[in-house]
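During the no-cost extension, the postdoctoral fellow (Dr. R.K.) reprocessed legacy sequence entries with the updated structure-token encoder. One reprocessed record is reproduced below for audit purposes.
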Amino acid sequence: MSLLNVKTARKKCRKHFNEIGIYGGTQIARLIGYGEDPSDAYYLLRYPPERWGEPYQDRYSSMVGGWFSIKRMGKTAYNYTEMNCGIPKADEYTEKIWETE
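Re-encoded structure tokens follow.
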């Protein structure tokens, strides 16, 4: 990944920290950080629990899949979705760099 793309990816993740969005066109997730290794960059996403009452899941997901904020849907609709999706906000932004694969 080029240095320019890394800077752009990091900037996007910081800008949209704790926002709800869609990953890979099908999965709702909250963006809570960024990860990178020598061959790829990753969103750190918080996914909703499989069943109500189970814990949420934080996973690094490849940026190839694409993540898009749903904030553009309007404040009322976004707030309703955020309140009902079962994905709590993160306390702080996380960034992790792996030097080797």
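The chain has a mean pLDDT of 92. Helices lie at 3-15, 75-84. The remaining legacy entries will be reprocessed before the final report is submitted.
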